[in-house]
Amino acid sequence: MHRHLITILAALAAAAITAGVVIASRHRDPASSRSPGSYAIGLWGDLPYSERQRTVGVPKLIADMNRQHLAFSVHDGDIKSGIAPCVDSVYTRFKALVDTLDAPAMFTPGDNDWTDCDRLLFNSKERLNFERRQFFSTPYSFGRHKLKQEVQEKPYVENRRWTVGRVTYATFNVQGSCNNLCDVAPDRSEYAARNKADIRWLHETFSEAKSKRSAAVMVVFQADPDWEARDPKTLKEADGRPDGFHGFLSALRDETIAFRRPVVAVHGDSHYFRIDKPLENSAGQRLENFTRVETFGEDDVNWLKVTVDPSSREVFSYQPQIVPANRAAVPSP
Question: How do 263-267 and 290-294 pair as beta strands?
Fold first, then answer.
């Protein structure tokens, strides 16, 4: 009986230890399962589009981001709807919002912020210059914790670059509405100078990524360049409209092919969340190291969490964040 009792007690003790291990593993901090050197970032844009979103939906989104211990976040443009006036308070109130993010917060302008202001009888170039003064007067990010960035030469100070954990990131002033080549009061000379600066910044970004031996590159801009409407070999639009994106996309394709490691292009504009691989080479072969990410926006007051692991094969993995407090859509007007 004594031996049997010892055997039974030993078995019970082993079972208790095993159960404890299982229970502990279920409550382990998810961040502890990441590879050393990995981190998370947040992507969002096309928000806020209404007063209710500004005062209710976006603060809840920011609170959700702040709970996730992000390395940084990027807003890819459009801080108001296309029908809202381009008054100074729109910009100052948005700046106050992004400064409530705990982690460094980056921003690149959108067409609703300046190119489309001509529709509302504002001067688009003056609004862009106001944004440059309001948002880009220093080399530092927004947020409670700041991150110093590389800045393109004046006047293109909105174009920024930074490297975190062997991954190079950059923002570009590439706009919807044909990149200022169509819509109300298009400005060809403004487009030509800015497009040249964007392409130069793109080449410099990849050059720096190569010199630093970065594991990947992420580029962020506002415009949806309408990949599906383009000839995959020439990257030109098929309908003959003014095309403000061909030069930039061609340079992006060339750099992606030469880089050979993962490249991600993040944009907003169309308000349709998606992750796909729309870019091909001139022979029609898919560029498998290129990924397009379009963020949530307009009525979808949510964001995208990206885990960045420079030691992994694809570097980036994606988890859409449907903010629980915003599941009942915060309507735009």
Answer: parallel
d(CA 186, CA 265) in angstroms, rounded, equals 25
Whether 194 shows a pLDDT value over 60: the answer reads yes
Q: Buried (b) or exposed (e) across 97-129, using 16+ Cβ within 10 A?
A: bbebbbbbbbbbbbbbbbbbbbbbebebbebbe
Residue 259 sits at the vertex; the CA angle it makes with 258 and 261, to the nearest 5 degrees, is 135
Q: Which residue, among 137, 56, 60, has the nearest Cα to 95 in the 3D structure?
A: 137
Distance between the two ends of the chain, CA-based, in angstroms?
79
Helix (H, G, I), strand (E, B) or coil at 6: helix
The predicted pLDDT at position 332 comes to 57
- Both 29 and 43 in one domain: the answer is no
Residues 2 and 133 in one domain: no
For β-strands 290-294 and 274-276, DSSP reports them as antiparallel
> Of the candidates 295, 319, 307, 218, which has an alpha carbon nearest to the alpha carbon of residue 45?
295
Long-range CB pairs of 1-7 (<8 Å, 24+ gap) are none
Residue-wise pLDDT for 71-112, tens only, equals 999 999 999 999 999 999 999 999 999 999 999 999 999 999
Same domain, 4 and 67: no
Shared domain check, 231 and 90: yes
Do 23 and 162 sit in the same domain of this protein?
no
* CATH number, position 155: 3.60.21.10
Residues of the domain holding 10: 1-33
Number of separate domains in the chain: 2
The whole model's pTM is what? 0.88
Between CA 253 and CA 174 the distance in angstroms is 16
pLDDT in tens, 203-228: 999 999 999 999 999 999 999 999 88
Q: Are residues 129 and 263 in the same domain?
A: yes
Is 333 within a domain?
A: no
d(CA 243, CA 186): 12
